[in-house]
Write a sequence for this structure.
């Protein structure tokens, strides 16, 4: 055997081993990255993706485009400008101001606490893209569900609240605390007036499956 052939063969083996080790390292690095992925990170990537998603939460489900993701919530709006939804079967980073502009009137925006979400369905390609490395919006990551509810209270927006047990409530949020809100119950789409209010209810965030904006801003 010629010495130059011997060294060339040895060099090729070393290159192959190096490539194998690098591939193994890249694979392990990728596994560690994916293992650290949070749900909200993947949901945030769906905003730019534009894919239609179907969200099944406790007590309700809905379909539309993802338009916002915060620290502990998801917002979708249907392509027709309203977040169409239906009662869930019993079978087994944007700021709030931008969210209300997701449609021309701010109508039909469906807000889901992440804790209430059971599944998110969309096309396979979008699911794969959501697992790719991405830069997170640090500001939207600090916006919590309570902040959105307080903003809705400030704007006096009529809402429909679907509870995790399936109950549906219409009204206006009077105020929101750290883990609950006060709802003045009245007819759907009507402005909050003392003569229209039928009841005042305190609702823990943990009991909410979806909050959907209704009507125009007052």
């Amino acid at each position: 055997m010629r010495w130059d052939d011997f060294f060339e063969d040895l060099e090729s083996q070393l290159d192959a081993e190096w490539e194998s080790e690098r591939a193994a390292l890249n694979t392990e690095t990728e596994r560690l990255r994916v293992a650290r992925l949070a749900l909200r990170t993947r949901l945030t990537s769906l905003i730019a993706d534009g894919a239609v998603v179907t969200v099944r939460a406790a007590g309700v489900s809905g379909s539309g485009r993802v338009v916002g993701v915060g620290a502990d919530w998801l917002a979708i709006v249907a392509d027709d400008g309203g977040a169409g939804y239906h009662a869930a079967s019993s079978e087994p980073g944007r700021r709030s101001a931008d969210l209300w502009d997701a449609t021309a009137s701010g109508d039909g925006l469906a807000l889901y606490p992440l804790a209430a979400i059971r599944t998110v369905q969309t096309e396979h390609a979008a699911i794969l893209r959501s697992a790719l490395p991405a830069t997170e919006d640090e500001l939207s990551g600090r916006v919590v569900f309570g902040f959105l509810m307080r903003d809705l209270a400030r704007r006096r927006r009529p809402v429909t609240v679907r509870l995790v047990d399936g109950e549906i409530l219409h009204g206006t949020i009077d105020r929101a605390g750290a883990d609950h809100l006060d709802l003045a119950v009245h007819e759907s789409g009507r402005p909050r007036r003392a003569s229209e209010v039928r009841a005042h209810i305190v609702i823990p965030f943990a009991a909410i499956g979806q909050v959907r904006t209704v009507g125009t801003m007052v």
